[in-house]
Design goal:
Length: 208
């Protein structure tokens, strides 16, 4: 009886000593794979973000260099919206935001005073003064509005053939626009498009 007892105890002891080792081994082999997958996913995510920050030309797949913000305003008068390369560059400028100094160069030929610009950009004259003093950049939405106004103004001067004539038209009540002054529509994108459409009708000889 004692031998049987000893044998059973020996077998149970052997089983107890053998069972932990395969479990421990399986855990140690799985851990590095999990860490490897996490590192690989992080690397892919980083690569994707980097690709998004460097847009490519839609036609040639070429990386577009960071635009020189101060050099672009002079091109806006003849900007070709169908040019893929320049279009991407302009998008990047809008996302970056133009600083107040660039804004002043763009606004110089236009007749709008500080109060008018504050209305157009949905801000206050105090905020514009602070931007000027602190050399701050405009937000993306404001930058896009400034560029829209620049494009509209150049279009108007081309249609009327004279800056003074177009300035007067902006301040005159327009029957086609609901007997309101075109300048009062420039604080919204829809209003800007309405004025552009009216300029297009005038350009083609369609008068109200």
């Amino acid at each position: 009886m004692e031998k049987k007892t000893t044998t059973k105890q020996g077998k149970s002891a052997d089983k107890g000593s053998d069972s932990p080792s395969p479990r421990t081994g399986s855990r140690s082999r799985k851990a590095p794979k999990a860490r490897h997958r996490g590192t690989k996913a992080a690397a892919l995510k980083s690569a994707n973000l980097e690709a998004l920050e460097k847009p490519q030309d839609a036609r040639y797949g070429l990386l577009i260099a960071q635009p020189q913000l101060e050099a672009l305003p002079g091109d806006f008068a003849t900007f070709d919206w169908n040019d893929d390369y320049r279009g991407h560059a302009l998008v990047r400028v809008i996302r970056h935001g133009i600083d107040y100094g660039v804004f002043e160069k763009m606004a110089e030929p236009m007749p709008f005073e500080q109060e008018a610009w504050a209305t157009i950009l949905n801000t206050t004259t105090r905020t514009l003064d602070r931007y000027k003093k602190e050399h701050r950049s405009f937000k993306s939405q404001q930058t896009e509005r400034i560029i829209e106004i620049k494009q509209l103004y150049q279009k108007g001067v081309d249609v009327f053939g004279d800056k003074d004539n177009f300035d007067a038209w902006l301040e005159t009540e327009n029957l086609s626009l609901g007997r309101i002054r075109p300048v009062s529509l420039l604080d919204t994108s829809v209003g800007i498009h309405m004025v552009k459409d009216e300029l297009g009708r005038i350009e083609h000889g369609i008068l109200a």
